[in-house]
Write a structure and sequence with these properties.
2 copies of one chain form a homodimer.
Chain A lengths: L1 E6 L3 H12 L3 E7 L17 E2 L10 E4 L6 H10 L3 E4 L6 H17 L2 E3 L8 H12 L2 E8 L2 E2 L1 H8 L4 E12 L2 E10 L5 H10 L7 E6 L10 E12 L2 E13 H16 L5 E3 L14 H8 L1
Parallel strand pairs in A: 1-2, 1-4, 2-3, 4-5, 5-6, 6-14, 10-11
Antiparallel strand pairs in A: 7-12, 8-9, 9-10, 12-13
């Protein structure tokens, strides 16, 4: 049995616990969270080791870092130094990801551990689909259309504005990679809706998208973790144009992210020391079981 | 430059030549085909080395085996013995594939070569999608819906019947993995259409599917290499049900198969000796170029 710890017990951490318990080859080593008083302990964690430092758990093969992206690199580095494999869903694309991979690659090789990074759905499984589409048709255009679903990043920006008590930013796909933003705000008493609306529309996170702002009495009443994506590519294989590909999914966002991280935990134990994105690991490594049976079933 | 030879010059071989010529990191070493007289040489192969034995080509790093599936295992084995990597689109699923992989695995390891097998679209890239869907939602049902498009296997069965001059078997998706067969036959003079229709519907290839048979004056007039697939999965991530995934493509069949084989040729040079399905190779290995740039672009 592979012993997996969940670090952080927010949305993704909760679903990660469920996914570990549902896997026959994995064992939940425990949950690492900020110190909580005994009377704040959650009944769903009864019988599960809950600690504030991972070193308080007996044996951990892999730690799932279910913490905000900004905390991930330092935490992954500390885990590597402690000889523990890590999996995260680091979600900033581009330079930042390349730099994080480079640093963690050095640290993991030094300590003989493995880090699987950006192991969510975008970046993550969507990246796998984008790569597959380009393998099949090397020339052409791909479009990633997100939603409808809640954007964590945009929601955080709105929540930070003065006068906003709670907020929700929805991403609506308009097509060909263009998105509309629907922002719902619950205001504090005496807050000026017109000024807040203007501030949102002028923010760099929103200024390039068509953004609509609505005032609501309750954010809780409209919140839902359903999300989705539509990936499209029209391209050329060899000299043959008009090759058309489409990937669509409608999913519970944190449940999917957690499930991908759990599969990556398993895969981490089959790699040489280093840091890996999902594109650098053979898909068969994410599965439990025998190679021949998997090939018979999946290929 | 990676030197790639095309073995067999049927439908897939023709498109493979185009895909190699379109790739900046590959060089066409030549085409291997049955002996042809000088006056039968195709103008499209002008300036390309066309030989009847691969040993007549100067240097070959990888051979694309664009020959019928039944000829693939023996040919792959001979290439391994000659120190040449191979890529094929072996298209029989299940036991047969597992056994072929096992045998070629031994031979390639003995000779220090690599064989990438079943590197078409199904088995092949569809297998990658099926695996990805199961990683994301380990419990649930997947359906593979083929077509509308021509089935090579079913067409060959009909062509072999007495009284049939030419034939075309189309696969039509009915939904949830069920298919309808539309069979078009051009008969020889004096052939009995009713008897042939009955023979087709009683054949093991057709007897479990709803099969319609039509008599036509020309097969050429209705033939088209357009094909497609719809892969669907509804499953559970952790304990969360109703996760929905869909992959759809509409493609030129031999052009796509050839392009996947060409990408696999590149990947073959990055693997340790052995035989591999697409599920056993990291997706990044199919691309030319630098890892950091690919991660920046695709992840």
């Amino acid at each position: 049995m592979i012993k997996v710890a969940v670090v952080g017990y927010g949305n993704i951490g909760k679903y990660a616990v469920q996914a570990i318990l549902a896997a026959s080859d994995l064992e939940l080593a425990g949950v690492v969270r900020r110190q909580v008083r005994d009377d704040q302990r959650l009944s769903e964690l009864a019988g599960i080791a809950v600690v504030s430092k991972i070193s308080d758990l007996e044996q951990v093969d892999v730690a799932l870092l279910c913490v905000p992206t900004r905390s991930v690199p330092a935490m992954a580095s500390a885990m590597a130094a402690a000889g523990i494999n890590t999996v995260d869903s680091y979600d900033i694309h581009g330079d930042s990801l390349v730099e994080y991979r480079r640093q963690l690659s050095e640290q993991t090789k030094q300590h003989g551990t493995v880090g699987v990074i950006a192991a969510g759905w975008d970046p993550g499984t969507d990246s796998v689909v984008r790569a597959l589409m380009e393998i099949m048709a090397p020339r052409g255009l791909s479009f990633t259309n997100f939603g409808p679903g809640m954007s964590m990043g945009h929601t955080v920006v709105v929540k930070a504005l003065q006068g906003v008590e709670d907020a929700l930013s929805m991403t609506i796909p308009v097509g060909s990679g263009v998105h509309r933003r629907l922002v719902y705000v619950k205001l504090k008493p005496q807050a000026d809706f017109a000024a807040i609306k203007q501030a949102i529309q002028a923010d760099p996170y929103f200024q390039n998208d068509e953004t609509h702002v609505f005032q609501v009495g309750s954010i809780e009443a409209i919140q839902d973790v359903g999300h989705g994506v539509l990936l499209e590519r029209t391209g050329t294989s060899g000299r043959t144009a008009n090759q058309r590909f489409k990937w669509e999914m409608r999913i519970n966002n944190p449940a999917l992210t957690a499930q991908v991280m759990v599969a990556a935990a398993r895969a981490s134990l089959k790699q040489e020391p280093g840091a890996y994105t999902l594109l650098e690991i053979p898909l068969l490594d994410y599965f439990p079981g025998q190679t021949d049976e998997l090939i018979q079933h999946l290929v």
